[in-house]
Amino acid sequence: MAGDWIKMKTSLADDPAVIGMSIDLGLESDLVVGKLHRLWSWANLHTSDGNAVGVTPEWVDEFLHVEGFAKSMEKFKWLKIKDDRVTVPRFDRHNGQSAKTRANARKRQERHRKRNGKVSRSKRDSSVTREEKRREEKKNKTTPPLTPPPARADLPPHVALPPCPVAWGGVVSEMIELGVFAPHPAVDAAQAAGASPEQVLAVLEYARTIPDAYGPGAIRNRVLICRPGLDPGEGWPEPSPEYTRQRQADSEGEKRKRQQAEQAREDARRAEAKRAAVQQEQTWGPVLDQLKPDELDQLADSVLGQTGPAVTHYRRRGATGMVRGLLLAAMAGHGYEGAEA
What's the mean pLDDT when you consider all of the chain? Predict the structure, then answer.
């Protein structure tokens, strides 16, 4: 109807909040303004104070056909979301009967001033009172109950929704987070080549797995050539010299750490062997020294065998050096009882 309207500023498309929502959702600013107008118009028709009890963010997204629109409005302070309601902040400034009344009063006052100069305060107040009464009667007769509209039946046929707006908006946000300037042309090229948002996000994730290998320009160019079938790790330029030097330094550092760990394990093994040898000498050395020659030969045969360097050493030098350590270890391991005392 001609009398149904809401107040919107003419420069809304240039508002920083609209620009932020455009980037956040991957939508054109004009489309964001249109969605805002549609939601504010609905709130103006179905609420008296902008407080919509029982309406959820999911319903708002379905009503506007853009997933995440309600959350984006909340992010930029244009919507408050609670568990059981959504609220349009500062509703009475731009919506509702009081805002319309004030706006109409200003317009009437301007017209009267142009024609007759200033009007009296009493005459203006009387005019405002009649206008408020008329609109209150009209509201009571025509305002329907708060009922969610059909899913898509009332969407004007000339409004074309972009494919996967929230998904592509997420891609743009991820690229901006990685430092890519003006990512939209690259995203548009990938989309035109048939790439999905998930494929582009996989490219960005690959760049994250190797930090500092590629700058924002390389990331942007890789997204530009993204297409179905191209592996996320393919199509990249040579990594930056800084990244190559850092990888080489990291590799050498890891090699030194492995060598140091191996040396530490070897030192620990030798220390443990030395400790065990000392313990065996203290415990079994006196027993070995008390063995008779034939008992010692019998022990040597059982431990050293009949041939080999150890047997040769024993025959020439007796139970000394390495051979003594072998005999003591055998005695400790087998609980050698030795000859009767």
Answer: 79
